[in-house]
Write a structure and sequence with these properties.
By secondary structure, this protein is α+β, with helices and mostly antiparallel strands. The chain has helices spanning about 15-25, 30-35, 50-60, 60-65, 125-135; strands at about 1-15, 35-40, 75-95, 105-120, 145. Strands 1, 2, 3, 4 and 5 form a 5-stranded mixed β-sheet that branches. The chain is globular.
Length: about 160
């Protein structure tokens, strides 16, 4: 597998004081994160809402919120970069038994272009790469094909 980080598409700043303030008022993490993001630059052609959603969904907020009291910073910079990937294995649902006890998956090798978020709060390259891989290795939203078990032997038969 090869990953190559390309040009910066957008830069944003997350204001942690604003995030805390909104969170205390609404107790809604998504609203607090979206309300604390400022777009610094946007060369991507995407709307500000799309850029903010990328940051909301592409960052490991659990780690950041966990370390915020220990390693307080006023803000975090996030750069969205184009990413070329080659020979990347993607796992997607294939077949599931009706009793949801047995699952089969498809593995597809992909080469494509995507977006990786580089944040400076936990400024280690493996944090950003791990998050990209974690968010993209399993295809969410693909449908399972129901598998009717015939005579207890399994298989992909949909006959009774």
């Amino acid at each position: 597998m090869e990953l190559k980080i390309m040009d910066c598409l957008a830069k944003v700043k997350v204001n942690f004081n604003q995030l805390k303030h909104i969170m205390k008022q609404t107790f809604n993490l998504d609203e607090a994160i979206l309300g604390s993001i400022t777009i610094v630059s946007n060369k991507s052609g995407e709307s500000e809402d799309i850029i903010k959603r990328f940051v909301l969904l592409g960052i490991n907020w659990q780690d950041i919120l966990h370390f915020l009291p220990i390693y307080p910073k006023k803000s975090m910079n996030v750069n969205l970069h184009e990413l070329h990937y080659k020979d990347f294995n993607v796992i997607s649902p294939d077949v599931a038994t009706l009793d949801s006890r047995e699952f089969k998956f498809k593995i597809t090798n992909k080469s494509d272009t995507g977006v990786i978020l580089i944040q400076d709060y936990m400024a280690e390259p493996d944090q950003n790469l791990r998050q990209f891989i974690f968010k993209n290795i399993y295809v969410i939203g693909d449908k399972w094909v129901p598998q009717y078990v015939v005579g207890g032997k399994g298989g992909r038969s949909n006959t009774k």
